[in-house]
Amino acid sequence: MKQFTAALLGSTGAVGQRYVSMLNDHPFIRLEVLMGGKSAGKKYGEAARWLSPSEAPKDIARKQVLATRPENAEGCDLVFSALPSEAAARVEPNFAKAGFNVISEASAHRMEDYVPLVIPEVNPSHLPLIKNQRKRSGWKGSLVATPNCTVTGLAMVLKPLLDGFKLNKVVVTSMQAISGAGFPGVPSFLIMENVIPYIKNEEEKVADESRKILGVVGKNAIIPASFGLAISCNRVPVIDGHLETLYAEFPGEVTPSAVTKTLNHFMGAPQELRLPTAPKQPIMVHEGLDRPQPRLDRLAGSVPGMSVVVGRVRNGIDKNSIQLTLLSHNTIRGAAGTAILTAELMAARGYLGR
Amino acid sequence: MKQFTAALLGSTGAVGQRYVSMLNDHPFIRLEVLMGGKSAGKKYGEAARWLSPSEAPKDIARKQVLATRPENAEGCDLVFSALPSEAAARVEPNFAKAGFNVISEASAHRMEDYVPLVIPEVNPSHLPLIKNQRKRSGWKGSLVATPNCTVTGLAMVLKPLLDGFKLNKVVVTSMQAISGAGFPGVPSFLIMENVIPYIKNEEEKVADESRKILGVVGKNAIIPASFGLAISCNRVPVIDGHLETLYAEFPGEVTPSAVTKTLNHFMGAPQELRLPTAPKQPIMVHEGLDRPQPRLDRLAGSVPGMSVVVGRVRNGIDKNSIQLTLLSHNTIRGAAGTAILTAELMAARGYLGR
Amino acid sequence: MKQFTAALLGSTGAVGQRYVSMLNDHPFIRLEVLMGGKSAGKKYGEAARWLSPSEAPKDIARKQVLATRPENAEGCDLVFSALPSEAAARVEPNFAKAGFNVISEASAHRMEDYVPLVIPEVNPSHLPLIKNQRKRSGWKGSLVATPNCTVTGLAMVLKPLLDGFKLNKVVVTSMQAISGAGFPGVPSFLIMENVIPYIKNEEEKVADESRKILGVVGKNAIIPASFGLAISCNRVPVIDGHLETLYAEFPGEVTPSAVTKTLNHFMGAPQELRLPTAPKQPIMVHEGLDRPQPRLDRLAGSVPGMSVVVGRVRNGIDKNSIQLTLLSHNTIRGAAGTAILTAELMAARGYLGR
Amino acid sequence: MKQFTAALLGSTGAVGQRYVSMLNDHPFIRLEVLMGGKSAGKKYGEAARWLSPSEAPKDIARKQVLATRPENAEGCDLVFSALPSEAAARVEPNFAKAGFNVISEASAHRMEDYVPLVIPEVNPSHLPLIKNQRKRSGWKGSLVATPNCTVTGLAMVLKPLLDGFKLNKVVVTSMQAISGAGFPGVPSFLIMENVIPYIKNEEEKVADESRKILGVVGKNAIIPASFGLAISCNRVPVIDGHLETLYAEFPGEVTPSAVTKTLNHFMGAPQELRLPTAPKQPIMVHEGLDRPQPRLDRLAGSVPGMSVVVGRVRNGIDKNSIQLTLLSHNTIRGAAGTAILTAELMAARGYLGR
After folding, report:
1. Which of B236, A112, A239 is nearest to D191 (CA)?
2. For chain C, which chains pass the contact test of at least 3 CB pairs under 8 Å?
3. D297: Cα separation from own chain's centroid
């Protein structure tokens, strides 16, 4: 199989570490270059305060972290960016201009007209927007964004609902894990034995991004989907795994069993292409009465953390509405995993060729 | 002022202890008789594993716990019941039959036609149902129920919304504290670093009880309010304080500022009567961007734990809908406090006379 | 390789579930019979409320739970007991009498003269006590105990210290995980945002058992080791992993580097015999300044959860004393793992032949 | 009574807020000036992210935060410093030089020969060191330090043990609350469902400071107490309240009952002088088998948070040693409370006169 080499921006942070773990032993993407800000010049093993139980892969730990400059990525086929939003806004276009295919997790460019915002199972059809992008920007490379961690699980569940039953409106409440705030992130003093009913800018992102992802490709931009969406975002004392309650209204009657079947059978391009990071079943409906639970279900599925787990599918106020609870792993499916899956999809579709 | 003496059923449990604390120094209700099951015969101080930081009042600690029998309550003007539901179903009617005015926190009788389900600020008009009750049951005493802990805060907020703006439908997600499950309650193994997206029978209770409380008195029963309600109940790792996100749709336009004003100005019979356990402001809208929070706001207000704290009032999907977050202390406003306030109201209205 | 079949008493509880997980895919022990009390007659998959993220192995889930009677274990080569102490006291001798080799995790028989209390790396030399046991009791089978979960990690660290440097006295403080209390175990109401500085009977067990394990085989019983030991046991809000601080005094000077080397090089019979559940390195000294930490290090080592992780080795009050912190996984190394390793050792040494 | 006015350095931080709360309604100390770094120029109510459930006193919230300069404290009788250590090292001497009596919580100057390190109940006799200090430094004002939060509870318990029974050595393990790390302090990602067995520089501070506090006044400096001390400091997921296990060896026999009596009867200068922040009983021995617990006992006593709660007094390895568990509120007794009590003592002894 054709091999691809990658550079990683923001490599030492919490999300950057997820990329390092997930790309270890990847069948055709090799993480070649690690970049960082203050940590540039140090060995990766010293620069990254390793946050997960398993240790950093030894060959990566020995690599030197390079300064975040396009010339340091020379020879790489793609560039993953785990940069925080401000840095991403400044830096990512330079890489795209210099000819790199950038896959970014930052919010900085997600809502730009010419930037595809992609979940491989949901809207692979948005990738061709890259052509417009190149034309408009004059970039030799490209910039593809992946969505906010709360959006990913939600949009994956909304996609088959929209396709199967249409969708009038949804009301969502999220209970989000602390790892979504990065590191150092949420002070323990604020979240211990508590819930914080607000996450800055999060609700706007969820509304805008999910409509874009579920929209259709127009002439020069995505025409967003038109269903109504209301959301309340909350931070809860959980380490990993965003839980969301979803109430959805449809133009006609829907039964919980039809919804369950539709969700369980949902498949996308990654499954058809058997991409290495694609879970066999992107959405798994759990039959347990009190599931999904973050601690028990966040790593469910054939590729741990890549499946969205749904439970408690039931009617809502009446027969035209349903309620359910969904869980997705915020730093895997909601971040590094979706970005890597996007890279795999782009490779399969010929977007990464040089 | 006229003095009343009270008996307490289920006195040694977690909620029973709240009654003991709150009735300590009460201006006109004196807790005279403590009843229990297995603990009957022991001193209260030995029988009750005291769960809060402050200690049990000394005179109460010295009292002997009596067996749960009507004859042991002789001379009491009212009987508070903090019994679990099954025991309540069996035992409470015996006390009402024997002539006692029972105020019960159990779910056992809440939905019976002839039982008023009361939040003093919301539906004092339901109390006269007691006459029907006596006629139908032949009881010399009475049985008044207080609602489920998740309902109380919700119904208090819905009341002024319904009166002020009408109400088509509401979608609610609760994040409930572990103390709502009593003691020993939720095993730490299940809830630590986790959220449990299900609480047995809770969602049905919220839907049924809130419509009854907000209903109007019909000939022989309450005619429930007719708005639509969908709810998802979750358990979170918080000790006290139920947080709820509320999405509400109205027949016409509503502005966040009008809702805020309406909620802040809401007053009920307890405030007019200046009852001792009535908070000056039953609903307090917090202006903080990230409030209410259980750990910071659960004891807010002039009577700690008796005010519902609301925050994040904003429009929902469109101008006909709003969203907000509310918090109420589940073992004070959601249990002992509302029961005691009900007793005070009944005293003021002449229901406790012998 | 010779295959052995096993029965499991107390199979549906929290620790029972660990056996089921660890024996899945075992190279030569096959879990054949699952026993239970109230759950007898049900399918295992329904009877056991599965507590870990991974699911119960399917073939096990389909098995019927049998009543806890020796005749139901017929044909098994060994019997693992994850029974609580009282049940163990009653039941285990019946199995031993009936000819089964019982490996018990319960405290019931640990301190009996004729019962070897074994950690395979520490005191395999105690196993021959089984001969005395059979003579004295007339049992055809045998009963071997494994130690309390707090003792296991401690005794493993004390063994090389005792052999290498002698040992005058040790002062230990434990910070124990909630899973050590089984299920439902510790109510969340008691342990959330708290530490409980007492665990019933635990301190006595640690003192007695560690001296027995480190003792030498006498004529009819073990002559316990004679060092002084003081311990304070605490429960902390951690799911798995007992952390212990150790202060130790020696007759002569000891250096942290000598202690580190001695601990890192410690090997026992399981390592020599390359038993399948034996970690390559029973004690791993972590170089991190702030390690070991329960959440990060409890699954360290070549067999996850079977290595004791030590850190912060430093001098104590003077050059004759040292201090260190140790961590062991309480339901793996401290329970199921040590029992399975004991079975492997007994198999290798011919104690399980029929 | 003579009134004193105070300035507060580091007023907006977590500990600064404790001073504000505790000095509200103080009978003779009025908090007049609030100083800050980045927050200078703002209203206190806006500058301080208020961390406790109760709100900031209104008159304080309205005050403007001033830059940290001696001239801004003009007219104040004393200066409390809640500055972090580096800032304290630079700034505090300037205030002392300018004629202010500074009471500092920072570690910066604690171990200086000429700085009294004071717990009012333990070593009021060290205050006269101020004379040496003035002579040596030429300051018109003075600088008195209060100890590290882990030391305070420990030294208070060691004082009566040392006086009553002598003391050969102590072995201590602390389980410290997150509030001890200030704000933002410990990231939730690190401490949730975890224990961190290391706190930077903490163990050295405990050893050095407790020996100084328990030492005797020599010619130009304190001659430290000579008992041996080994300590392991751990961070646990608790909000407030440092718990410590203590093992102590004595030259002769000691009984738990004698120790209990000695601790319960311990009194110091603040109790004799009936200072307003002095708890009636500085050390309270709790009789509960599983006490003290941080969440239940941290606010025990007549002045909430000012009493040290001790429990589980028992013999250690032999009759010459004892073990016990102690709890002290780290931001009250371990910080603001002890500083305010020190100010009260200095006022009573005439050190604050101008």
Report:
1. A239
2. A, B, D
3. 18
End-to-end CA distance of chain B: 16
State the SS3 of C4-23: EEEEEECCCCHHHHHHHHHH
Closest Cα to residue C32, out of C9, C16, C15, C8? C8
Give the Cα separation of C161 and C153 in Å (integer). Answer: 13
Task: State the virtual CA torsion across B169, B174, B179, B185 in degrees, nearest 10.
Answer: 100
pLDDT digits (tens, 9 = 90+) for A187-207: 999 999 999 999 999 999 999
Strand partners, A232: A173
The token pair at A273 is: 């292409």
Q: Give the helix ranges, DSSP H, for chain A.
A: 14-23, 44-47, 58-61, 85-97, 129-137, 149-165, 188-191, 202-213, 256-265, 269-272, 294-297, 337-348
Q: Cα dist. C76→B210, C59, C90 in Å?
A: 58, 18, 20
Q: State yes or no: cis peptide before A93, omega within 30 of 0.
A: no
Find all residues with CB under 8 Å of A218, minimum gap 6, and list them: none
Q: So what's the pLDDT on residue C52?
A: 84
The domain made up of A4-148+336-348 is a member of CATH 3.30.360.10: no
Q: In whole angstroms, give the CA distance from residue A38 to residue B110.
A: 63
Q: List residues of C whose CB lies inside 8 A of any A CB.
A: 52-53, 192-193, 295-300
- Please write the tens of the pLDDT for every residue from D215-273: 999 988 899 999 999 999 999 999 999 999 999 999 999 999 999 999 999 999 999 99
Q: State the Cα torsion A58-A62-A68-A72 to the nearest 10°.
A: -110
The answer, yes or no, to whether residue C354 has pLDDT greater than 70, is no
SS3 content of chain D, % helix, strand, coil (to 5): 35, 25, 45
What pTM was computed for the model? 0.97
Q: What is the ipTM, given to two decimal places? A: 0.96
Helix axes D85-97, D129-137, angle to 10 degrees: 80
Q: Which of B50, B176, B188 to mutate to test the interface with C (most CBs of C within 10 A)?
A: B188
Q: Are A53 and C192 within 8 A, CB to CB?
A: no
Choices 3.30.360.10, 3.40.50.2300, 3.40.30.10, 2.60.40.1600: CATH for B149-329: 3.30.360.10
- Predicted confidence at residue D143, as pLDDT, reads 97
Task: Tell me the mean pLDDT in the region C106-111.
Answer: 95
Of A149, A233, A286, A329, the catalytic one is A149
For chain B, give every domain's residue range.
4-148+336-348, 149-329
Q: Is the preceding peptide bond at A184 cis, omega within 30 degrees of 0?
A: yes
Instruction: Write out the two tokens for A168.
Output: 């009038």
For the segment D272-286, the average pLDDT, to the nearest whole number, is 98
Task: Pick the residue of D178, D194, D199 with the most C CBs within 10 A to test the interface with C by mutation.
Answer: D194
